[in-house]
Amino acid sequence: MDSQLNPSKRRKISVRHRCVACYKMFNRREHLVEHMKISYHSLHQPRCGVCLKHCKSFESVREHLNVPDHLSKGNCKAIFTKRGCTLCLQIFEEAFALAEHKNKCHLSPPRPLGTSTQRNPSSSLAGSRLKAMALDCEMVGGGADGTIDQCASVCLVDDDENVIFSTHVQPLLPVTDYRHEITGLTKEDLKDGMPLEHVRERVFSFLCGGQNDGAGRLLLVGHDLRHDMSCLKLEYPSHLLRDT
Q1: Same domain, 235 and 132
Q2: Where is the C2H2-type domain (predicted)?
């Protein structure tokens, strides 16, 4: 009977294309290809310990693990609640392994993402023992197709894993794609963001050890660092860059 149906009346079966890294779905293959070009997925990205989904940052992993199971396609939250470390987000097979790990895990507890500065603002970085800082930026999309990368949040961490500076950034262009699955950012997050020029000045000031002479003093470490610096419109001595 089915073979006698008019081909034009047969129901079309839509094929969706999934990103193997972040699991985002696309109706057209070319959209998936474009996504892979601009998402910068790599083995260095944080991943969910349950479903192995790639995320842009640990904040995005934490948000992913807090999605109620009835709203997600997996059971990541339930498994993480039972067998996950709330500090470093690792997943353990046995309860005793998790308990043993928690006695050794001393990462700083997560802070709400917002504008923050070093723990003791009165002390100058000039006399500190800091040798390096790590930079991470979250990008949102601008332009008609959302492919123009714009810096939307910045975080600086010192070599003792202390957050020195963290803030949202006001994009220069209207945002057409918040890339929420990767960045975890929304329109509300960027509402009170710092202007890009002010963020750039603050970051550069920290890298100069608190001095105003414009001379870089600290190593700057990051993944795809040159891309982040380009979006920040930040120039820094190349011999002090360590791009992972």
Answers
A1: yes
A2: 17-46
Domain that holds residue 96: 17-102
Residue 185 located in a structural domain: yes
The pLDDT-based confidence of 109 (bands split at 50, 70, 90) is very low
Min mean pLDDT across 136-140, 182-186, 195-199, 215-219 is at 215-219
The answer to whether residue 108 is domain-embedded is: no
The structure's pTM equals: 0.49
Is 170 in contact with 195 (CB distance < 8 Å)? Answer: yes
pLDDT in tens, 87-103: 878 888 888 888 888 87
One domain, residues 129 and 239 = yes
Asked whether residue 219 is assigned to any structural domain, the reply reads yes
The pLDDT tens digits for 41-57 are 776 678 888 888 888 77
